[in-house]
Structures are given as C-alpha cells and as structure tokens.
Structure prediction request, 165 residues.
Amino acid sequence: MTAQEARLIAEFVLGDFEYEMQTTLRVLEAVPADGLNYQPDPKSKTALGLLRHLPLEDEWLLNSVADGAFVPPPDDSDSCGIMDAAGAVARYKEKVPAAIARVRALPDDHLVREVDMFGMITLPAVNFLSLALKHSVHHRGQLSSYLRAAGGKVPSIYGPSADSQ
Prediction:
C-alpha cells in the first residue's frame, strides 16, 4: 500500500468513526444513574465499566496510531474519574475528536509505518484505525444491550428502537 492509499483509507475510516461517535454518545447518555452496577454475568463488565471503557479505549487506540506505538491501556478504575454517564460523555466529547485530529495531522508516510501491538500483531498504522472503529462499535453494542435491563431506554442506533418511537 502506498502512503497516498493509506491516507484515503484513513480519511474514510475516520469519517466513519466520526459518524459513529454520535450514536456512541447517545448510548453513553442513555445509561441510567441507578443502573451503573448492572452486569449480565460475572465475567462481563458492569455498565459503569463500559462507560469508562469506551471513551478511554477509543482515545487510547487513536492516540496509539498517532504515536506510532502502543503503551499499556488506560486504567479504567475509579481513579480514571468517570463515575457516571455525564462524565463518560464529557470525556468522549473532549478527548476522542482530539485524538482523531492527531491522526488526521499525521504525514501520509506515517500511516504506512509498521506498528507493533504488544508483540501480538504488527500492522501498518492505518490498519489499526479499522480495529479502533470495530472495537468502539462492539463495546457500544454491548452497552446498548445492557440498557433496558439496567432500567434505561435504548436510543436510535441504525434506525428507531422500540424505546425511541
């Protein structure tokens, strides 16, 4: 892949990411305050865990592409400061667009540089943008499946939901 081809791919995926962000924010906003401890299975994250995971990991994955290197993922314990839906939304709105802007500002040749993800996989940096988008949509779907059981309402995602009509 050429650097110019990588730029085209990056712009396409980042545009998709920006489009999906609006839906992600609606799902984050829909988590009720009294449903933060909802957990469908002991192996699953709680709703609060997912509220933290989405903004922190989306930012981390995008910044890892911008940095050309992966560092350990962020701490998603109470010390991260996200304690409710409003905190998750605020963090997402502040940090994720800034991380996207960092990736957009990369020179084209940086998008084709090989990046190692903890010895598990090495790919051109641009390939990790697709992984970041898939990761975000996956965990958003996970969180959206928690909403009714946690006492919330499912917002429109790719069309109306039973709760949004």
Q: What stands out?
A: DSSP finds five helices and two strands in the chain. The CA atoms of residues 29 and 85 lie 6 Å apart.
